[in-house]
Amino acid sequence: MLLFEKEKSISIEQEDTNIRIIVHLKDYFHEIKSIVTFDSNFTLILAAKVQIIKVPWDLCYEVASKMEGLVGLKIQKGIKEQVQRILGGSMGCLHLVELAMESITTVIQLRDFHLLPKTMPYKERMEKIREMYKGICHAYSSDDKNPKLLRENLQSQLD
Prior knowledge:
Radius of gyration: 19 Å
CATH class of the largest domain: Alpha Beta
Distance between the termini: 52 Å
Strand order of the largest sheet: 1-2-3-4
Order of helices and strands: EEEEHHHHH
C-alpha cells in the first residue's frame, strides 16, 4: 500500500556564461521550485529564489525570502552547514535546505565533468574522475573491488 509519493526533477540552463539550476519538488502537500544561479566557474552562488506553488500552511510563505541568503556563498567545504544555518532550523524550512543542497550537489557534479577538456582521451578522463571522487564515492574509493574498473584495467593491459 502506497503511503506517500515525492517527485523531484532537476533542470540545468545556461544563461550567458552562468548556470541556472532549477529543482522542482512535488508531493501531496508541496509544490516548490528553487532557482539557483551559479557563476561560470561553478564556484559562487549569484542568485537564489524560490517559487512556492503549493504549501500546507500560510506560514510557509514567510521563509521563501531566506533563499536570497545563499547569494555570495562559495561552493567549498562547509557549504552544507552554511545552507542549514541560512535555510534550516525552527525559523526555516527543511524543503528549502533539500532543494538548495540538490542544486549545489548538481553544480559540483557538473563542474567536475564540465571542466575536463572535451578532447581528453577516455582513459585519462576516467582517471581524473577517479581522482576527484576517491574518498567521497564508494565505487571510486574501492578500485580493487570494482568489477567494471577491473575489466577496464584488464582490457587496457591487453590493448
